[in-house]
Write a structure and sequence with these properties.
By secondary structure, the chain is of the alpha/beta class. 34% of the residues lie in helices and 27% in strands. The strands form three sheets. Strands 1, 2, 3, 4, 5, 6 and 15 form a seven-stranded mixed β-sheet that branches. It has a six-stranded mixed β-sheet with strand order 7-8-9-10-13-14, covered by helices on one side. A two-stranded antiparallel sheet has the order 11-12. The model has no long low-confidence stretch (mean pLDDT 95).
Length: 267
């Protein structure tokens, strides 16, 4: 399967402009035979845009995303602010090339006041689904920085982890090094797709990349707007997990006492 990620500064606070940009990116992706396109976190509205986020989140972008996907035959994972009766969630939804919803994820690990001031934490773990022969799941930004969370998702069968993100200064090392480590220690692909530019006081580090199970970087864009593409394969994951059997060689029974003791001492 060929996948792509759209790194962009977007147009903060302009849903219409962002959906137009996404439509243009889908056309380019289709021309390159891409089957699945990933946007940054909160792509539809922007991330650090202040109180206007609450009103903008009342617009449901999914009908437009479904129509776009179906019109061009490209699956889309879009990051957006999800309005519910309970409050807002920092969410991502994947629609397939026919416009049907395949998975929906709400960010569980909220980062700093930018997240906590607006969003409720999700409670459901990543769902692992099969699409175009790949078992894939989604997390959002800070989620992927918790190694046990990624490990649990890999143990559930994930071969390709899609991560819309809004990674900002000074955390370039996470975008470049930590993501490669997560791919290596679980022998899975990770598509980590970031914003570029600046919103409010937040300056984004770019460095979107698609990483292979052996930690090699298949595609990366450091700064600026653009699409990155890479081909992914379930067979590559199987070979990598056979050659470097971290998942098979685990001894979780030996770790349980350590975890229990740690949690007992937590305040």
């Amino acid at each position: 399967m060929r996948i792509a990620g759209l790194q962009t500064a977007g147009t903060p606070g302009r849903v219409d402009a962002n959906l137009t940009e996404l439509g243009q990116a889908v056309v380019r992706a289709r021309q390159d035979n891409v089957q699945l396109l990933v946007t940054p976190e909160l792509f539809v509205t922007g991330y650090d845009i202040g109180e206007s986020l609450r009103d903008l989140a009342r617009f449901d972008p999914l009908p437009a995303i479904r129509a776009m996907a179906a019109a061009h035959g490209v699956a889309i994972l879009v990051g957006y602010a999800e309005h519910t009766e309970q409050g807002l969630y920092n969410s991502a939804t994947l629609v397939d090339a026919e416009g049907h919803t395949l998975l929906h994820y709400r960010k569980q690990h909220l980062f700093g006041e930018l997240d906590r001031a607006f969003f409720l934490p999700g409670s459901a773990p990543p769902e692992v689904i099969t699409y175009q022969g790949m078992r894939l799941a989604s997390m959002i930004c800070y989620d992927v920085e918790f190694p046990e969370y990624v490990r649990a998702t890999a143990l559930a069968g994930c071969e390709l982890l899609l991560v819309p993100t809004a990674q900002m200064e000074p955390f370039t090392f996470i975008a470049r090094e930590v993501i490669r480590t997560r791919a290596w220690e679980n022998q899975i692909y990770i598509a980590y797709i970031n914003h570029d530019g600046q919103e409010g006081q937040t300056r984004y580090v770019g460095n979107s990349q698609i990483v292979a199970p052996d930690a090699s970087v298949l595609a990366r864009i450091e700064q600026g707007t653009g699409l990155i593409t890479a081909d992914v394969s379930a067979q590559v994951v199987a070979r990598a997990q056979h050659a470097n059997p971290y998942l098979q060689d685990r001894r979780p029974a030996s770790y349980q006492s350590l975890v229990a003791a740690f949690e007992k001492d937590m305040p």
